[in-house]
Amino acid sequence: MTTPISYITCTRNRPSELADTIGRLDALHRHDPQSVEVVIADNASDTPIRQCLPPTTIPVRVVTLQANIAAAARNHAAAHTRHDWLVMLDDDSAPRDLGHLNVLAQTPPTTAAVMADITLPDGSRERGGLPEVFIGCGAAIRKQAFIDAGGYDPDFFYFAEEPDLCARLIAAGWDIRFSPWFRVLHKKTSTNRDHNRMLRLLTRNQGVVIERTTPDQDRNFLRKDHVRRCAWIARKEGALQGFAQGLAELRSTRHTLKRQPLGHHHYERFTGLHHARQAIEQALQLQPFDTACLTHEGKHAWAVRRALTEAGIHLTEDAYAADRLVIATLSPGPMLDALAHLHATGQGHRTIAPWTQALNILGLESEPFPLMPSLLAQPAHRESQAEAPAQTRIRA
C-alpha cells in the first residue's frame, strides 16, 4: 500500500538547485502523483521561487515568507501539508529511490522520525547526526509528533535545530530510527555557504542545546568538549572569526536559557552514549578483550571513550598492540564509512563500531563482504555516473 507523504523543503535564492530537486521528486512519483505533495517554503528569495519551478505531475505548493527565517520556514510549510509523514529535504537533496515508502509503511507507532542514509556525490556519507539525531536534508517525521514538539526553534536560524528538536521528541517518549533503505543524495552545493556564519551559528546553537538538555553532572564537561570541537572545525575551515563571535553570543545568553535537562536514559540515547555502551557490551560478550585503540575520532568521541573505560578496557594509542580498534565517532555517516574502510583494508576482524546496527546496515557477513542491494550502484538517471552511489563506499 502506498504511503502518502509530504515533502518539505525551504529555499532562498537557489532556483536551479530547487528546480533539479523538484524534477527528481517528480520523476520518482509519476506513477502515483496523488499520493505525494511538495510544499516549499520560500525564504524571501529575491526572485519569487514560483517563477522558477519546472512543470510537474505531482502537486507542488509554495509558501512565500516575507523574511528569511531559515530552518524555521519548515514549520510554515508543515502547516500547509495534508499527509501524516513529513519528509524533510534541503533544496539540493532528494531520495534516490522509493525505498522510504516501504520503510514508513512498516514504521512502528512509537517512532517519531526515520533518518535516511545520506550520501554525497563522491560516494561518501553526510557528516553529522547521531544514532537518534537526524539530519534535516534527509529525514521523515510524523506530522503530529513534529507539531506537538513545537517544530524547529526559530531562534536557531540554522545549525543544531535538528538536535534541539530530537531532544524534545525523545523527552516526549518517542524513538528515532535509521534506515538504510531510505536513501538520499545530498548534492551539498556551495551556493550561499559562508563558513564564518556557519561556525558562528554552530558554536552558539549547539551550545544552547547543551545548556538546555544536559544533566548537571555532565554540563561542564560537554561545554568544554563542544568548544574544543568547534575550535578544531573553525581552524580547519578558516572560520575563527565566526567561532569567536558564536562563542561570545553563547556566553552572553547562557545564564538566561530555560533549563530542560533530559532524564538519565533519554540523555544517554540522545548523546549516543547508550548505543556505544550497547555495542561495547555486545562485543565483549562475543569475544572478550582488554585493550583498545580509538580510530577515526569524530563527533561524541567522548561517549565512546567513556563506554570503554566503564567496561574496564584499557585505552592505548598503539594500534598494532591493541586487541581491538574502536571507531570513535557516533555520527552514523562517518562511522559507517570508517567501518567499510577498515573492513576493506583487512582490519575488520578486530574493529568495533559503537552502534550495534552498523554491521547490519552495511551488510557485513564475511571477509570480503557484499554490499546490501540498497547500497549497490544504480543505473544513471537524471544524474551523472559520478553522483551514483558506487563501490567507493568501500575504499582503501
Low-pLDDT sequence parts: 365-396
Task: Write down the domain tally.
Answer: 3
**Multimeric state:** single chain
Report the mean per-residue pLDDT as an integer. Answer: 90
Output the radius of gyration.
21 Å
Q: Distance between the terminal alpha carbons, to the nearest Å?
A: 41 Å
Q: Which percent range describes the beta-strand content?
A: 15-25%
CATH topology type of the largest domain? Spore Coat Polysaccharide Biosynthesis Protein SpsA, Chain A
Question: CATH superfamily of the largest domain, please?
Answer: Spore Coat Polysaccharide Biosynthesis Protein SpsA, Chain A
Task: Walk me through this protein's architecture.
The protein is built from 13 helices and 12 strands. By secondary structure, the chain is an alpha/beta fold. The protein has 3 domains: about 5-185, Alpha-Beta Complex (Spore Coat Polysaccharide Biosynthesis Protein SpsA, Chain A); about 195-265, no CATH class; about 285-375, 3-Layer(aba) Sandwich (Rossmann fold). The strands form 2 sheets. An 8-stranded mixed sheet has the order 3-2-1-4-7-6-8-5. A 4-stranded parallel sheet has the order 10-9-11-12, sandwiched between helices. Helix 12 links the parallel strand 11 and strand 12 (about 350). The protein starts with a strand and ends in a 34-residue tail after the last helix.
